[in-house]
Amino acid sequence: MAKLQKSIDKKNAVLKATLSLVNDGGFQAASMAKIAKIAGVSPATIYLYFENKQDLINQLYLTTKTQFCAIAFANYEESLSVTKGFETIWYNIAKFKLGESMESYFLSQCDNTPMVDAETQKQGVALLQPLISLWERGQSEKIIKPISPYLLYAYTIYPIAFLMNIQKRENYTFDQNCLKDAFQTAWDSIKLDK
Q1: Cα dist. 72→7, 33, 88 in Å?
Q2: CATH number, residue 29
Q3: pLDDT tens for residues 148-167?
Q4: Considering the domain boundaries, does residue 55 fall inside one?
Q5: Torsion angle of alpha carbons 57, 58, 60, 66, nearest 10°?
Q6: CATH for 169
Q7: 116 in a structural domain
Q8: The overall pTM is greater than 0.85
Q9: What is the CA 91 to chain-centroid distance, rounded?
């Protein structure tokens, strides 16, 4: 059991070191030698857990995306109204993006660069299915505009990454009033006017 835990700890150290290096200098700056040094393992140890650097980045992405989704869908139930369900998910995502800045910044980079391969990106999108299903229900109930889920995401979720970057760069902390305004703006951008 102790040996298994030590193995898990080493793998987690490699993932954490990779996250830090990618956030600080991008994908290219995260060499296997640097990752090993920061993680406190030999470079050969990394290959016990990951086939290559791409596999390492892909697994880090899926691990981080899974953590993100666990928070995003906490306290969300399909029985909630579309409006209340979206509000619950949106605030959970804001909590993650503004509170877990290292992980959020990494996911943002993955969304904007080809660091993660296409198959892994598909797996990451599949983790968002509860949100996509909620939007589909909202569209069928004529509550949400009949537009692509990519546009819905771009107008509602992606702006939180912008707020995260401002908070990170300028030491600005968003208060509840700002978050309330941001949520209302997000909701207003996708709700169907009746």
Answers
A1: 29, 34, 8
A2: 1.10.10.60
A3: 999 999 999 999 888 888 87
A4: no
A5: 160
A6: 1.10.357.10
A7: yes
A8: yes
A9: 14
